[in-house]
Design brief:
Its main location: cytoplasm. By secondary structure, the protein is mostly helical. 59% of the residues lie in helices and 10% in strands.
Length: 232
């Protein structure tokens, strides 16, 4: 990575990083090191690990201070919806981080520069670099601008963070003051690859069925089908 590329990255993220090697490390995918044993920098995996924790704390503080009226359960669901791989990927894509990645030839041929998981990991690594090189406040500002922006507020305002199961529960509780129940109707397949067929019931009446490789996933699928049936 040359000085021009480093300057471009700093302009993109809006921060002048003092430790340029640390910034470069954020873009080193482990595949690159497999083909370049003598490369002087490590992969971005440890930065990604740290960035994930920093990102979690930033999101928690943001929600706690800006939305004090919400419950801990809501915080958990909201955080899961905003720090998921797809959201981080979208933020990395807007910053064009894939352009600067160190990738093996195989990853390059497989469009690794636009790979969802690789870009999401790179975004977390950049968050860690900002935290280490600058401070927590700078990392908080970066995440607020490039990940949250208007997206997180819209997710909360429109209840987009709620799972199908939660949405169904809130609807029935608000309208009828009663909750749905879930029952396993059938389970088949070997232990390591079992498939569950679950029914969601309201006042002992079957509303919909769902399937999944775990009871939770089957319940979520059943709730999603129920929402469609009830046209919610």
């Amino acid at each position: 990575m040359n000085n021009s590329q480093i300057d471009n990255i700093q302009k993109k993220i809006g921060i002048a990083i003092k430790n340029k090697s640390l910034l470069q490390t954020a873009f080193v995918h482990r595949s690159y090191l497999n083909e370049n044993k003598s490369f002087k920098l490590p992969s971005n995996e440890k930065l990604e690990f740290l960035g994930d924790s920093v990102l979690s704390l930033i999101t928690s503080i943001y929600l706690y201070t800006k939305y004090p009226e919400l419950s801990e359960g809501h915080y958990t669901d909201i955080k899961a919806s905003i720090v998921k791989t797809e959201s981080l990927y979208e933020a990395a894509l807007k910053l064009n981080l894939g352009k600067y990645l160190y990738l093996s030839k195989g990853e390059q041929d497989n469009n690794g520069a636009s790979n969802t998981s690789i870009l999401a990991d790179t975004f977390e690594a950049v968050v860690a670099v900002i935290f280490l090189d600058q401070d927590f406040t700078s990392a908080y500002s970066f995440v607020s601008e490039h990940l949250f922006a208007n997206k997180l507020d819209a997710i909360i305002k429109n209840n987009l963070y709620l799972s199908a199961k939660n949405k169904l529960q809130e609807y029935l509780q608000d309208k009828f003051k009663k909750l749905p129940t879930y029952k396993v109707i059938e389970q088949k397949g070997p232990e390591h690859n079992k498939i569950y067929n679950v029914g969601v019931f309201f006042e002992n009446k079957l509303i919909a069925k769902g399937t999944g490789h775990s009871k939770k996933h089957a319940q979520d699928d059943a709730a999603s089908q129920a929402l469609q049936t009830l046209k919610i």
